[in-house]
Amino acid sequence: DTCCGSGNVGLAVAGSDPVVRVVCVDLSTEAVALAESNAADLGLGDRMEFRVGDLLKPVADLTGKVDLITCNPPYISTANVETMDTEIAGHEPPMAFDGGPFGVKILRRLLKEAPAVLRPRGFLAFEVGLGQGEPMSERMRRLGVFDSIDVFKDANGAIRAIGARLA
């Protein structure tokens, strides 16, 4: 689970099956510490590992061995981060939201780096911002390394998550 934040996604995966082992990664030392604390509170710490670093670099030792990569990346454009409602932005550091000039900087890197980390037939699942779903799923099709790409829409019909299987 990269860009793990407080660990919600990784914790859900670890809690879903007692044989699952999860590695949570985040650029923020504070986020990783919080995720680790949450895992301990839920009794999941023995099946989880926590690493600080940039996207998938901290799991380079797992190249070609990962069954599933999950990611809830920053996907708000830099210009919009400054204008976000304080009810949302007031509880997280700006780096938790800032996805670069167009909001897809981390998403593009994820699509580039994930195939090397995944085992053959492994899965990638990630959240996208409003308006990013179709361009990101099309980019994945053009990469030609995923044989199955599924989009998941919110109640308003907007693509908000993408799941794909490596060929």
List the helices and strands and how they pair.
Layout (H helix, E strand, L loop, with lengths): L7 H9 L5 E5 L2 H13 L6 E5 L13 E6 L6 H4 L4 H4 L15 H13 E10 L5 H11 L2 E8 L5 E8 L1
Parallel strand pairs: 1-2, 3-4
Antiparallel strand pairs: 4-6, 5-6
Question: What does this protein structure show overall?
Answer:
The protein is α/β, with parallel strands linked by helices. It is 32% helix and 25% strand. It is built from six helices and six strands; from the N terminus they run αβαββαααβαββ. Strand 5 and strand 6 (159-166) form a beta hairpin. The radius of gyration is 16 Å and the shape is globular. It starts with 7 loop residues before the first helix and ends with a strand. The relative contact order is 0.14.
- How many beta strands in the DSSP annotation? 6
Helix content: 25-40%
Shape verdict: globular
C-alpha Rg, in Å?
16 Å
If helices are DSSP runs of H or I spanning 4 or more residues, what is the number of helices? 6
Order of helices and strands: HEHEEHHHEHEE
Structural class: alpha/beta
Which key features would you list for this structure?
167 residues; alpha/beta; four-stranded mixed beta sheet; single chain
